[in-house]
Structures are given as C-alpha cells and as structure tokens.
Design goal:
Pfam families: VanZ
Keywords: Membrane, Transmembrane, Transmembrane helix
Shape: globular
Distance between the termini: 14 Å
Radius of gyration: 22 Å
Organism: Sinomonas flava
InterPro entries: VanZ-like
Number of helices: 5
Structural class: mainly alpha
Protein name: VanZ-like domain-containing protein
Strand content: under 5%
Largest sheet: none
Length: 165
C-alpha cells in the first residue's frame, strides 16, 4: 500500500521549517555579532566599574590574582563565537568550513575595527579566541549530531520508503 502524498510531504515540510528557523537564528546571531563588533566604543565600557568590583570580590574569594579582565575578555571572545560553529554545522556546512568561516568572520571583524573604529582595538589574540570558539562549537555539534540515534527501519523497507507513524 502506497503512502498518501500528504503524509510523505510532512517530513519534508518539517525539515524545511527547521532549516528556515536555523537560518533565522543564525542571521539573528550574526546581526548581534555585527552590532557588538561595529559598536563605535568598547561595549564593556559602561560596565568597567562593575567588572573591577567583580574581580576584586573574586580575588578576595580565592580566584588567583593572575585571572583578571584580560583573561575574562579572552574567554568571552571564545564563548562569543561558539554559536558560529554550532549554526554552521547544523546548517549543513562541513566542519572545516565552519571553523574557516569563523576565522574569516573574525578577521573581517578585527579588520573593520582597525580600519574604521578609532576607539576599538583590533588584535590577533581576538582572532585566535574567536576561531577557537568556532572550533569548539563545531566539535561539540559534530559530536552531538553523530551520537543522535536514528530511527530503526522495519525489515523490508528501503530508505526511500517513508515509515508510517
């Protein structure tokens, strides 16, 4: 017995909606990255006093004195680009392309800051941190996607024959 066309279209429609939602999320993420990267002044400037108080408190409560704003900012740059790798893999890009894309986006961001934003500081350390973030997002997503169980197919069914619910 043949599956009615309406049932066969549902998985494809669901996949198309999922892909559209992923693209929407990726574009929203990239818009946020662009806003932070192209902000004329350092985005953390308004929080400078709060950050100083936070580090003072952390150092009084056992965090080593060598861990300060520089390390915190570097880790924030790593975390900032983890979603880049996640979205790239989920959208179907190969792992190497996801990491290379993160590297290229970071180079473009730092070049824009260097060329157009006098109050911002471009740095190779930021490129390295951002690329590491894209790499970590890529690796984590590849690991999760590979571990996802696939639904077993009933005996005698080919991969092109949709299973009934």
């Amino acid at each position: 017995m043949e599956t009615p066309p309406s049932r066969a279209v549902r998985p494809a429609a669901r996949a198309a909606r999922r892909r559209a939602a992923l693209w929407a999320g990726a574009l929203a993420y990239l818009a946020g990255v662009a806003a932070v990267v192209l902000w004329p002044a350092p985005v953390d400037r308004p929080a400078a006093g709060s950050l100083a108080r936070m580090f003072s408190w952390l150092h009084r409560h056992g965090v080593p004195g060598w861990f300060g704003y520089g390390q915190f900012e570097w880790l924030a740059n790593v975390a900032f680009f983890v979603p880049f790798g996640v979205f790239a893999v989920l959208l179907g890009f190969r792992a190497w392309a996801a990491v290379l894309g993160g590297f290229a986006a970071s180079c473009a961001a730092e070049a824009a800051q260097f060329l157009f934003l006098a109050e911002r500081t471009a740095s190779f350390a930021d490129i390295a941190a951002n690329t590491i973030g894209a790499l970590l997002g890529t690796l984590a997503t590849v690991a999760v996607v590979r571990r996802r169980p696939t639904a077993p197919r009933p005996a005698g069914r080919s991969d092109s024959t949709p299973a009934r619910p």
